[in-house]
Amino acid sequence: MEEMCTNSAHVNISEMIRKKRDKQSLSAEEINYFVQGVTNQSIQDCQIGAMLMAICLQGMTQEEAVNLTQEMKLSGAVLEWPKEWSSVIVDKHSTGGVGDKVSLVLSPALAACGCKVPMISGRGLGHTGGTLDKLESIPGFNINKSPEEIKQILATVGCCIVGQTANLVPADKKLYAIRDVTSTVDCLPLIAGSIISKKGAESLAALILDVKYGEGALYKNISEARELAEYLVYVGNSLGIQTVAAISRMDNPIGKRIGNSLEVIESIECLKGKGPKDLEELVTCLGGHLLHLCGKAGSFKAGEKDIKNALQNGCALGKFQAMLVAQGVTPDLARALCQGEEVLRCAIKQEELKAEAEGMMLH
Ligand code: IUR
Predict the structure, then answer these.
(1) Pocket around ligand 1: residues whose beta carbon is below 6 Å from it?
(2) Which atom from ligand 1 is nearest to the alpha carbon of 194?
(3) 206: which of 2, 249, 345, 347 is 20 to 30 A away, CA to CA?
(4) Residues annotated as catalytic (active site), given as ranges
(5) pLDDT per position in the chain (363 positions), as tens?
(6) Alpha-carbon distance 190 to 52, whole Å?
């Protein structure tokens, strides 16, 4: 049976699956039809699964991958910002790692340097902890904010860290759920579509990607990480987001503390300029690139220096404290936490464990 595409062209889903199965390219119109059908549930799950597997096995041209990402971005709401913010709306994405608390430090540091950071973060995936889980160890912290509330917090504080709203890139929710059960997660155009469409829906000016490789990362070697990084950078730039990737090692946890509330405490130490070197280095590197990309700094090195200053002069910590209050934490608790008082529910019992031999702990 023939079905109608929104722009009146005739498109047939089983014919499209056959085309991709036979390594042919899908037109922009066909990709539009596929993503709309995924979003409005007019395409069956078995057809979505078959298409994802065909994409996984036969790949996509760069043009197809960009079209897929653009259509996914437009499948739901796209955040809108005041004109005067258009060059300073920035965010980062990390492929994730143990002890990765960079977002908690980077977001307020960037706000202290004049950027607007509508950071939409996720939960833990596999063995890596999620930024939202870490922040929720602070009593009262609310990750659910509407687009209007996000805009308000950006106007007053400059940064927020929130969960994905229901109407942002609904196509990704459906596609990701089906990728998860059809062994089609590990596929470059689908990864790029998923990650970059969500950043596109934030209407960013600039994006930094932290692509990790090593024992504790999804990709074990640098060549795979580089391939993913280059792919994401191409698709990000094609959607009009100035995009740069940093490739970093993930053989050891970042910093010295692992666990939600412990990572908040270590982030606050870093926000006072007293954090572990590896964490501070990542924050200043990623932040330096973003400040340079969005024109707030004349060079990457100057951007790094600005981020370091914001950590040392208390401005980044002040932004973090203001963000906590804007997201539901009482002013007294936010102040106490930032002053270093032990207000979080950490482990009640502490016990020293002695290793039997020297070595590294990976997982
Ligand atoms: N994170 C995402 O948002 N999407 C993906 O496909 C992967 C990680 I892999």
Answers:
(1) 185, 191, 194-195
(2) 4
(3) 249
(4) 93, 172, 179, 194, 198
(5) 444 444 445 789 999 999 999 999 999 999 999 999 999 999 999 999 999 999 999 999 999 999 999 999 999 999 999 999 999 999 999 998 888 999 999 999 999 999 999 999 888 766 667 899 999 999 999 999 999 999 999 999 999 999 988 899 999 999 999 999 999 999 999 999 999 999 999 999 999 999 999 988 878 899 999 999 999 999 999 999 999 999 999 998 999 999 999 999 999 999 999 999 999 999 999 999 999 999 999 999 999 999 999 999 999 999 999 999 999 999 999 999 999 988 886 655 667 778 888 887 654
(6) 8
- Which of 267, 245, 238 is CA-nearest to residue 255? 267
What is the whole-number distance in angstroms between the Cα of residue 84 and the centre of ligand 1? 31
CB within 8 Å of 345: residues ≥ 6 apart: 137, 261
Ligand 1: atom nearest CA of 190 is: 6
H/E stretch holding 36 = helix 28-39
194 C-alpha to ligand 1 centroid (Å)? 6
Neighbouring CB atoms inside 10 A of 14's CB total 12
Dist. CA 195 → ligand 1 center (Å): 6
Q: Which domains does the chain have, with CATH numbers?
A: 2-59 (1.20.970), 83-168+185-345 (3.40.1030.10)
Q: Whose CA is nearest to atom 7 of ligand 1?
A: 191
